[in-house]
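Re-run requested by the PI after the first attempt was lost when the workstation crashed. Everything re-entered from the original request form. Ligand of interest: zinc ion.
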Amino acid sequence: MNGEGVMTVYGGIEAGGTKFICAVGNNPQDIHAIERIPTTTPAETIARTIEYFRRIAATEPLTAVGIASFGPVDPNPRSPTFGYSTSTPRPGWANVNLAGEIAAALGLPVAFDTDVNGAALAESRWGAARGLDTFIYLTVGTGFGGGGLVNGKPMHGLLHPEMGHIRIPHNRETDPFPGMCPFHGDCLEGLAAGPAIEQRWGQRGETLPADHPAWELEAHYLSLGLMNHILMLSPQRIILGGGVMAQSQLFPLVRQKVVAQLNGYVSAPEILQRIDEYIVPPALGNLAGVLGAIALAQMTFN
Ligand code: ZN
């Protein structure tokens, strides 16, 4: 309820590279409607998203809409390009005014952040990061993104973190794959995102058996990335989501390698004794992003 005793309900959009997940509701137990719209051209995808919310809003007026988008984006409300996608290599999607077009068409306030900051916010409210104020959420799928909360607030700064594009050691003798990041070649995303697994081994990750050497190498790269994130940001927990992390055999491998890489230097019981609770999958599964978008709208326009 808002101050006037009117029920409030929010719209959320997880803008992803393969689909836009649109939902209306207030929390994981209170989702009134959900729709998945394939990501095609910006014009078509945005038009279908607007049409969906117009249809809903005709019977259930929305308070505000949140968008949690694939990056890179401009999340700074004071910037002239706030709510735009920026340098994404996805064809047609660079410099698209995602938040502005949706806000104007629906006549509603729109909150906007990265998909990973949104997912992190949802996990802190309802999922795997309840009670924590500083943690990170990484997604390893068609790309490699990272966000999180610092002191209870979504991580921002100059723009937003790009935790998948850090450099990690790459031994070209044991792994001659050059990496596939269009900007950096063998950055973490270039070596460890889903398309890198597919290109390196000649088949999609989900078709490789659980004991394939691909997973040992994947866990090696993930552990190097996580070690950097642990040392730079001191997160109280790390949530690992995305399509690649659906390979649950990665979790024990990654945990063991992170402990080995840190080599006793970070002497926290969370790492030395309770690593199984420190590196965890998302509790909200594949709804983390769209629930995050709803949480963003609630946080901004409550
Ligand atoms: Zn990169």
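Saved to the shared folder this time. The first helix runs from residue 42 to 57.
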